[in-house]
Write a structure and sequence with these properties.
Helices cover 29% and strands 27% of the residues. It has 326 residues and is an alpha+beta fold. The protein binds zinc ion. The site of zinc ion has 9 residues, from loops.
Length: 326
Amino acid sequence: MPNARTPSIHINRQTFNEMDFIIKDTDTSVANAIRRVAIAEVPTMAIDLIHMQVNTSSLHDEVLAHRLGLVPLTSHRVDEFEYTRDCPYCSDHCSHCSVTFDLDVQCTEEALTVTSQDLVNTSALESQLAASVQPVHFSGEYNSTPSEENGLASNGIVLAKLAKGQRIRLTAIAKKGVGKEHAKWSPVCTISYKTDPTVQFDLNILNTLLSDEAKRALVKSSDECLAIDPKSNQLVYETAFTLGRISLPLDCVKKMTLLVLEGLGDPTQVLEYNNDPHQFYFSLETTGALSSEDVLRHTFRVIQTKLNQLSAHLQSTVQENLNTLF
Ligand SMILES: [Zn+2]
């Protein structure tokens, strides 16, 4: 029977670019839509066009261009940019749909590492909007937005290493796009979900049925899904099991079923099958282009827009059909 309760979201852990959350009272199709839209349809800014003026490094132009494309750019104001293909102000690219970066580095010492810190946003002086797009230099886990002030900014993402006399000089144009065009626009490093265990037992009944020895034997064969609570001496599920990270091994399920058959005669009283999960444990990590919260917000908006468009189309199709009938 369909679950009529309103879906809800509970955030367990949140940093700037990571979030663990639970979505309750929905089904697999919705959970998967959230995962797929977050990966492929949330827009960000990324370098899409390179004018290579000088490249005497050991890297080919294409390799360097590819690396530049993968540098995440801060995109919290991405909604204010146009997609270049839809831009009403230009035929190529302009300040409404792109941001320009210059990179000019020459090695005069023994060796020099070129990083994302060497990318200079030359559009920044034109508008605050353009200035909001900057390379993401940091990596790792942070509890707040990384910056020079709080000491969380790192040394930048390595792009190339130059030997004495080598030089790279180029102009890079960043444009708005989504992950389904190219992975460089995806704001997400990883997003995955797990559901409640597929098979589990009602431990309240098992605890009354089994002897201490039988309980210990079950714990042994449960692959760390079960434990015995030292205070109450009762069987309990381990957290990893209740979070859906591990499941009961088949041997353990068989053993439990036999034990229950001996004691109760009907294993269905304690066996619980979960073929229709309605609770989803998500783990999300972003590239830093958007905060984890922004990724989720954009994801829900994209899904909502699609459904609104579908609904409007349905309405007009129904109306057309009625007009032809009468
Ligand atoms: Zn434009």
